[in-house]
UniProtKB/TrEMBL annotation:
It comes from the Bacteria. It holds the Pfam family Hydrolase_4. Residues 111-225 form the Serine aminopeptidase S33 domain. Signal peptide: none annotated. This is Serine aminopeptidase S33 domain-containing protein. It comes from Lactobacillus kalixensis DSM 16043. SUPFAM superfamilies: alpha/beta-Hydrolases. PANTHER family: ALPHA/BETA-HYDROLASE, ALPHA_BETA HYDROLASE FOLD-1 DOMAIN-CONTAINING PROTEIN.
Length: 337
C-alpha cells in the first residue's frame, strides 16, 4: 500500500479533519467505554466466583471437612462411636424437583412409633448428625439421617440454604410415614443449615404426624446470613457485600428461581404452630446468636429458647451434653410423649 493510499484510510482521514480538542474528547469517551467494559467483565467474574463459592458444593476454606474420625478425648466419643458401629439401612428417594437421587441412613428401633429426622448443616453430611442418634435411639426412636441435596451421597448441583431443601424434607417425611405407618410421631432435629431448612419447612402444610421441632443454630434469613459470612470471611466492608449479594440474588433468581430475600425463615415461622425448641451457642460467630432471638419471636406455636453458655457454632451438645439432653428430654416428654 502506497503512502497516498494510506492517507485515504477512514481513520487517518478522521485525524486530518478533526481538531485536537475533538480528538481528545473522542479518546476520553473511548477510554471510558473501555473502562466500563473492563469493569463489567471484572464484576461478572467476581459475581461468578462468588456465586460458585457460595452456592456450589465445592470445598470451602472456612469449612472443616467432615470426617468420621473420633478422638478419645471427644466429649461425645461414646455417642459418635456407637453411631459408627451401629448397623444402618440405606434409603433412597427422588428429590422434589425429580432431578436427583437423595440418600439417607436409617436406624430402626423395634416396634417404635416415633421417628426423628436429623438434618446436617452446610457442607457437611448425614454422619455428622450421628452424635444425636444415640440419644434418640435410647429414647425409643427410629432415626433417619438424610444427606441434603448436593451433600454427601445425595445428588445435586447447587446448595439452596434450605429453601429448595425444604421440599425434599417433606418427601422424606412422607417416606417415613409410607414405610413405618401412619401412627408415627415425627420429630425434626437439625443443625445450622439443616435447622434453617426445618424452620422453612414449618411454614408448609405438614402431615399431622409431625409433632415437634428442635432447631440448633439456624439462621433467620439466607440473604442476611450470606452477607454476614461475606463480611466475616472476606473481611470486606458491609456495604460492599450487600451490593455483591444483591447481584448474587439476581443470578440466583435466574439459576434457581428465587431471590435470596424470599428465602426467609422468619416468614415461614410466622406460619408455624408446632412446638419448637430453639438452641443456640452464646459465642456463635458463624450464625450470629441474635438470629436465635429473631427466630424465637417469629414462631406462633409453643416455644422454648436455650442459649448455651460458651458454645460456638454447632457446639452446644459438645459444650454441655448433660444440659442438652435434659432440655431434649423435657421438651420431648412435654410435646411428644
Amino acid at each position: 500500500m502506497s503512502i497516498l493510499e494510506v492517507g485515504k484510510l477512514p481513520f487517518l482521514r478522521y485525524l486530518r479533519e478533526k481538531s485536537w480538542g475533538e480528538i481528545m474528547k473522542t479518546k476520553t469517551k473511548i477510554l471510558l467505554g473501555l473502562g466500563a467494559v473492563s469493569f463489567s467483565v471484572a464484576a461478572i467474574a467476581h459475581v461468578k466466583y462468588y456465586y460458585e463459592y457460595a452456592f456450589t458444593p465445592k470445598h470451602k476454606k472456612f469449612i472443616k471437612q467432615p470426617t468420621n474420625a473420633v478422638e478419645k478425648n471427644d466429649p461425645l466419643y461414646k455417642e459418635k462411636t456407637w453411631f459408627l458401629n451401629e448397623e444402618k439401612q440405606t434409603w433412597r428417594i427422588k428429590s422434589a424437583n425429580g432431578k436427583y437421587e437423595l440418600v439417607a441412613s436409617y436406624i430402626p428401633k423395634a416396634e417404635s412409633h416415633k421417628t426423628v429426622i436429623l438434618l446436617h448443616g452446610f457442607m457437611s453430611n448425614k454422619n455428622s448428625m450421628g452424635k444425636y442418634a444415640y440419644f434418640f435411639n435410647k429414647k425409643g426412636y427410629n432415626v433417619l439421617l438424610p444427606d441434603a441435596q448436593s451433600h454427601g451421597k445425595s445428588g445435586g448441583k447447587y446448595i439452596n440454604y434450605g429453601w429448595r431443601e425444604k421440599d425434599d424434607l417433606i418427601k422424606w417425611i412422607d417416606e417415613v410415614i409410607g414405610r413405618t405407618g401412619s401412627d408415627q410421631k415425627i420429630v425434626l432435629l437439625e443443625e445450622s443449615m439443616g435447622a434453617a431448612t426445618v424452620m422453612m419447612t414449618s411454614g408448609e402444610d405438614l402431615p399431622d404426624q409431625v409433632k415437634a421441632i428442635i432447631e440448633d443454630c439456624g439462621y433467620s434469613n439466607v440473604k442476611d446470613e450470606i452477607i454476614h459470612q461475606a463480611s466475616s470471611v472476606n473481611k470486606l466492608p458491609k456495604f460492599v457485600n450487600i451490593s455483591s449479594v444483591d447481584l448474587l440474588s439476581a443470578v440466583n433468581r435466574l439459576v434457581n428461581g428465587y431471590f435470596l430475600k424470599n428465602a426467609s425463615v422468619l416468614k415461614q415461622l410466622n406460619k408455624n404452630y408446632l412446638p419448637t425448641l430453639f438452641i443456640h451457642g452464646e459465642k456463635d460467630d458463624f450464625v450470629p446468636t441474635k438470629m436465635a432471638y429473631q427466630n424465637y419471636n417469629a414462631t406462633r406455636g409453643p416455644k422454648e429458647l436455650w442459649i448455651v453458655k460458651d458454645a460456638g457454632h454447632a457446639e452446644s451438645l459438645s459444650t454441655d451434653p448433660k444440659g442438652y439432653y435434659k432440655h431434649l428430654n423435657d421438651f420431648l416428654n412435654k410435646y411428644v410423649g
